[in-house]
Amino acid sequence: MLINIKGKAVRKWIYALMVFITSIAGSWMMYEIFSESGITVLEVVLLVLFSITFLWISAAFWSAFIGFILQIFDIDPLKLKRNKHFAGQLDNVTVKDRHAVVMPVYNEDTDRIMAGFEACLVDLQRTGQLDHFDFYMLSDTQNPDMAQAELTAWNELCQRLGALSENIYYRRREKNTHRKVGNLADFCQRWGYQYESMIVLDADSVMTGECMLTLVKAMQQNPMSGLIQTVPIPVRSQTLFGRFLQFASCLYCPMLATGQAFWQTDSANYWGHNAIIRVDAFIQHCGLPTLAGKAPFGGDILSHDFVEAALLRRAGWDVLLLADLEGSYEEIPSNIIDYATRDRRWVQGNIQHLGIINGKGLHTVNRLHFLFGALAYMSSLVWLVMLVLSTIDAVVRATTETVFFASNYSLFPSWPVVKTEYIITLLSATAIMLLGPKLLGAIVALVRRRDQFGGGLALMTGALIEATIAIIIAPLMMFYHAYFVLNVLVGKNVSWDAQGREGRMVPWKEAFKRTWVASAIAIAWGGITLSLTPILFWWLAPVLLGLLLAAPIIRFSSSLYLGKLSRSLGMFVSPSEVEEIPALRILRIRLANVQHQDEILLSSPLMPPEQWQDMPEQSFEFLSSSVEMPIQRLASDNKQQ
């Protein structure tokens, strides 16, 4: 079905006006609070920092609010018509050409990646359309033992699949040059000529056969589309933290994605996996350069997905987000330490985008993706600096004698003025914009899909507990993100290793090792404010308590026992637990019955014939005049036909 997006410019202006009007109003109130008694240099800095953070939370709130309106009335965010859902609309569309499903892996758990790979293949085979697809496991594994385990498991998989193994391939690179970017580029340059499109999976991805077919058909029906992104929903979490995060994602992500799709229109973002990409467009326009200079802005492009979406859009291809397409799943870190470790990599990649935000020819929305991606992490540093500067300001005021007569000739005293009404209004507005999306997401789920969360009571109870936990862990995540941003800004690189996915309980030693600095700062901070400015201490109490109890929070939230207990009590119930999807059932059964043969005859995997295609390196300094825009290509194809 052709996706006809109307009013693109109007949508962006509506969204931009709501964000900026709110931001200006908040900044003005903060200025009024500061200026009544004379604004200091310190308060000017605070005002600037506040304006940045208020802009960020305003953008997030209004995107969520738009998503809420569209979802509550079941309106498609792209077409702005009553939602009929893509899977149903494309049932009669015939799959044409050939398509690849690729899973790049790097030093991953062998049993998990093979089981996920098999689950996707078998579920697609159930649709009867497997003949149009080839599956590739693209290994960048450098650990020799893991590489040997992959080869053994691959041969076992081929034996188990029998005739279905004709559609699967395994390739391992000896040197993982340019990481995942180089891995996918190697596939496209050597075998991309055979395929119209490729569905990119992550090592922990699972997609249903219906979802993959829908992506292929949607791309066929929309010849201007270069990339179509789904919304990956977390599954299989077992620890308390994992289940909390999984529940929150299932509850809020569809609404948030709907709001994003509304204003992004044909310039959506790419999250690196669980998406379909037009191979020819990717080859011609997504050859990533090595950026000049040193870290954090130079070197290999780390968060390549945002950049690839921007390059496709720059070349004239549509990048779409199908917020309502179901059947796209992923797994998430099981504890706060692993979650923060993953964020450390993303912090560096997103900040690097600021170095190319002014790249030649980039679409405005893609520039916003770069900016918002960086602000998502840098805002933590800004919040922390604001809290520190506010503490300094309060301590200075508490230890300085108030001057009522600024001049010897003054007839009247200069009384300090506190605009209480502005303070209350601003605090209330900030709280609403921070917590409002959670309430809106819960309302949508209560109205539209309460049964998927185990009923209305389980849904609302889980939402209330989730909001509480989110507030408790927010100070620790703020501390981690601020620390990561500082590391990146001073040029300290991070290794991009495989992330931990399976549930584990964090040992006390590791928990204290990763949190003692934050806890020590909280003790000193609390002691100073309690003795000098007790009112500020009680305002800071939630932040200080979260930092002080960081180690126990990490330890107990990573508990598998508490995760299972929460499940037995009906807490944090997610849709994948209420009704198990066939593809996830295949994955579960396969992992529960992993058996390796004692002796197996290993054979080198066979690959299709190669036909090399150059992948031109793109530039952010200029646009190549030889690049053929997709509209020109389509016109040429129609003329030839």
Automatic annotation (TrEMBL):
The residues covered by the Glycosyltransferase 2-like domain are 199-402
**Matching InterPro entries:** Glyco_trans_2-like, Glycosyltr_2/OpgH_subfam, Nucleotide-diphossugar_trans
Which GO molecular function annotation, any one, does this entry have?
Answer: glycosyltransferase activity
Q: How does it sit in the membrane?
A: Multi-pass membrane protein
> Transmembrane: is it a keyword of this entry?
yes
What's in the keyword line of the UniProt record? Cell inner membrane, Cell membrane, Glycosyltransferase, Membrane, Transferase, Transmembrane, Transmembrane helix
* Location in the cell: Cell inner membrane
Question: So which domain of life are we looking at?
Answer: Bacteria
- UniProt-listed NCBIfam families: PRK05454.2-1, PRK05454.2-5
Q: What is this protein called?
A: Glucans biosynthesis glucosyltransferase H
Organism of this sequence: Paraglaciecola mesophila
Q: Which gene encodes it?
A: mdoH
